[in-house]
């Protein structure tokens, strides 16, 4: 044969006759879909425009919408960097990539280096765009649901299991709570956090993903253990993990939760950052507060928006039973002490039905000492904070059990007066808090925030007690002291606490 084309020219020849030449321009809408492993996809949309030597556009990575403000290279080898304003700061992403035929090969560049190459595909213009804004309702006070007269107690999946939570684990936790004394100690709510969500059907009804085959059956199971089931969503189109949020489906989701038998909703702002301003939070939370009431089921309403906009001032008006006071806790003394010792000024906002939530417990998760975990439990109890355990309740050490199930400490947390502590004395890194209890008793905590042990000596008068007490009960040692001098001395281990119940 004579007219054989040199092989290098073959693609060009084919593309010319077929009219499908490989793209040399990045302009278009590209979808990168990565399986979450539960039947759902994590979707990132690159809406790119390549023109005059630069690449502009947006990157919508589930709940985050970034605007590209730096670019270099061309379709054969490009880098794009994009930012979004969030929480008074900026969040950024950087991707490198190239066009490969009509696919886009991209990899994310982080402080740890360049990630694996992934393939994005062209999708129609408009797909993956943020949904249109729905105006938030006019403000009005949501009727009190009458729930959570004492701080809610239970368990939540996030701190220990994060994305690896499923039906079997939740059932196992419920079994453990019904058997190991947690339920009798007051821990009632079994709360599923993020990553249970699946897709919506044609009628807009939310379905769980395949980790949770039947939410109603799971609720029935948890109820059969005389426990309650909690769930999680966001007022935005996506949750923090990029799953389906309740945006535009608030009333429908509330009805679905009620039909499943859900007893508690944690509603996490995350994905709402792309639609609403911080100043619109009250109205947006109110919308779900109303929807939960209208569902006709008793559902505890937990606001999770990291303490922005002084939520403690309006949380109850939005129907909230509890509201997070700040960012996420972690299993470290730095985190627990920073959070625990800073919530005190918010104490006046807590009252029966409406509580400050310094976040879920880390007790038993393994990165603190038992002394530090006792301080964690004591701080939360003095603050009248919700006690939502965050460890694997199926495998607890004896000391973790003793800390979580110390009935005398729990009684302080659950005191029906609902009056959180105040600081009455401080000297360097040692401080004393007192909390008025229902029968005239006072809970008194001597904290030592220093790393080393300390001897703390205080006069009862320094703790603003009118008399020398007639009985001092040590709530961690379970001992009583009856012959009491006007001056009290305690040895407090580093990062530790002496927690007393004092009777005048
Ligand atoms: C946010 C919340 C956490 C947890 C995660 C789940 O970070 O503050 O408590 O719910 O989202 O994605």
Q: Would you mind describing this structure in some detail?
A:
The protein has 12 helices and 27 strands. It has helices at 10-18, 158-161, 167-179, 182-185, 215-224, 250-260, 281-294, 311-314, 333-342, 370-382, 398-404, 407-413, and strands at 28-35, 41-51, 54-61, 64-74, 77-86, 89-100, 103-110, 113-114, 118-123, 153-156, 189-191, 197-200, 206-208, 228-233, 264-268, 300-304, 322-324, 355-357, 387-389, 422-427, 430-436, 442-448, 454-459, 471-474, 479-481, 487-492, 497-503. The protein is of the alpha+beta class and 504 residues long. The longest helix is centred in the middle third of the chain and has 14 residues, at 281-294. The protein is elongated. It has an 8-stranded antiparallel barrel. Helix 6 crosses helix 7 (281-294). 21% of the residues lie in helices and 32% in strands. A hairpin with a 2-residue loop joins strand 7 (103-110) and strand 8 (113-114). The chain binds alpha-D-galactopyranose. Alpha-D-galactopyranose binds next to loops.
């Amino acid at each position: 044969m004579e007219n054989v084309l040199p092989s290098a020219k073959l693609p060009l020849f084919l593309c010319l006759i077929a009219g499908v030449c490989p793209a040399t321009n990045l302009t278009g809408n590209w979808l990168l879909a990565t399986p979450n492993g539960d039947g759902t996809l994590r979707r990132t949309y690159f809406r790119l425009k390549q023109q005059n030597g630069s690449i502009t556009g947006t990157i919508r990575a589930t709940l985050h919408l970034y605007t590209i403000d730096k670019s270099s290279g061309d379709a054969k080898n490009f880098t794009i960097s994009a930012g979004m304003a969030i929480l008074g700061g900026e969040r950024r992403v950087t991707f490198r990539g190239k066009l490969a035929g009509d696919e886009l090969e991209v990899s994310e560049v982080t402080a740890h280096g360049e990630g694996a190459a992934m393939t994005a595909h062209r999708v129609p213009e408009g797909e993956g765009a943020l949904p249109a804004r729905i105006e938030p309702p006019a403000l009005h006070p949501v009727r009190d649901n009458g729930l959570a007269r004492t701080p809610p107690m239970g368990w939540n999946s996030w701190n220990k299991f994060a994305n690896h939570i499923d039906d079997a684990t939740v059932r196992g936790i419920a079994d453990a709570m019904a058997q190991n004394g947690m339920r009798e100690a007051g821990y009632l709510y079994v709360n599923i956090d993020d990553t249970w969500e699946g897709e919506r059907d044609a009628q807009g009804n939310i379905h769980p993903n395949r980790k949770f085959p039947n939410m109603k059956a799971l609720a029935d199971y948890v109820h059969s253990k005389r426990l309650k089931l909690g769930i999680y969503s966001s007022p935005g189109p996506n949750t923090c993990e990029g799953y389906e949020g309740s945006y535009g489906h608030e009333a429908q989701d509330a009805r679905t939760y009620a039909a499943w038998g859900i007893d508690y909703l944690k509603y996490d702002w995350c994905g709402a950052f792309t639609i609403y301003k911080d100043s619109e939070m009250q109205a947006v939370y109110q919308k779900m507060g109303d929807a939960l009431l209208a569902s006709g089921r008793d559902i505890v309403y937990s606001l999770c928006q990291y303490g922005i906009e002084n939520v403690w001032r309006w949380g109850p008006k939005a129907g909230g039973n509890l509201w997070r006071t700040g960012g996420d806790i972690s299993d470290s003394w730095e985190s627990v002490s920073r959070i625990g010792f800073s919530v005190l000024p918010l104490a006046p906002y807590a009252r029966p039905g409406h509580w400050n939530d310094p976040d879920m417990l880390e007790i038993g998760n393994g990165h603190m000492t038992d002394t530090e975990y006792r301080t964690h439990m004591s701080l939360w109890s003095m603050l009248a904070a919700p006690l939502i355990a965050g460890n694997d309740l199926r495998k607890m050490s004896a000391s973790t059990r003793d800390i979580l199930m110390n009935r005398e400490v729990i009684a302080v947390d659950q005191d029906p007066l609902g009056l959180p502590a105040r600081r009455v004395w401080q000297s360097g890194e040692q401080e004393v808090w007192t909390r008025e209890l229902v029968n005239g008793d006072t809970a008194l905590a001597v904290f030592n925030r220093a790393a080393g042990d300390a001897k703390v000596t205080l006069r009862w008068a320094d703790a603003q007690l009118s008399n020398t007490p007639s009985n001092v009960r040590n709530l961690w040692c379970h001992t009583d002291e009856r012959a009491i001098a006007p001056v009290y001395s305690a040895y407090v281990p580093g990062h530790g606490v002496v927690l007393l119940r004092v009777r005048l």
